[in-house]
Amino acid sequence: NLVINISTEMHKQMQDNNSLSPFTHVGNFDAKSEISNIGGPEIDLDLIQDFLDEDSLDVVIAKFLKGLQQSGLRPLSDPRFKATMDRIRQSDENDDKSSMPERMNIEDFKRCLSNNMVFIQSALSGNLIIPHWRNFTRVIADMFEECR
């Protein structure tokens, strides 16, 4: 209900501001289908394949955080990720609740991401305002060096 209420409120605000519907397609990802999938959020496994441990098929949390950082996000300090990062820290697999676990099984990982699935998938698939953050930062750095 919370997701539906937030989505309804967001839709109303966007209509009031004459902006796009929140149910527009973002790349290959459809936010409307994600909202309708409240019971069991899914993440595109292709997006997290680089974060998996080859031996156990668990998600390596440091690789996941680095992937978000390469998209231009700062998951450990960004308030949009607070609930997600708290869920990861508090997971059953983590003995030290004050720090991030090294790894997590995929099902627990998906549950931890459930409140931020649309945003995280958009980031990992390069569908944020600046789609390819690493390339963008390289171009800016090159321009800076040329002007120096």
Explain what this protein looks like in three dimensions.
This protein has 148 residues and is mainly alpha-helical. The chain has helices at residues 2-16, 31-35, 45-48, 61-70, 82-89, 106-113, 117-124, 133-147; strands spanning 25-26, 29-30, 59-60, 103-104. Helix 5 runs antiparallel to helix 6. The longest helix has 15 residues, at 2-16. It starts with a helix and ends with a helix. Residues 1-40 have low confidence and may be disordered.
Topology:
Elements: H1 2-16, E1 25-26, E2 29-30, H2 31-35, H3 45-48, E3 59-60, H4 61-70, H5 82-89, E4 103-104, H6 106-113, H7 117-124, H8 133-147
Antiparallel strand pairs: 1-2, 3-4
Helix pairs in contact: 5-6
Q: What are the key terms here?
A:
148 residues; mainly alpha; two-stranded antiparallel ribbon; two-stranded antiparallel sheet; disordered N terminus
Query: Can you give the helix content as a percent range?
Result: 40-55%
Query: Could you state the order of secondary-structure elements as H and E?
Result: HEEHHEHHEHHH
Q: Nearest-angstrom radius of gyration?
A: 17 Å
Q: Low-confidence spans: pLDDT under 50, at least 5 residues?
A: 1-40
Determine the mean pLDDT.
74
Largest sheet report: 2 strands, antiparallel
Q: Which range does the strand content fall in?
A: 5-15%
What is the 3D shape? elongated
Q: Pairing-aware structural class of the strands and helices?
A: mainly alpha
Number of strands: 4
Looking across the biggest beta sheet, what order are the strands in?
1-2
Distance between the termini: 54 Å
Count of DSSP helices?
A: 8
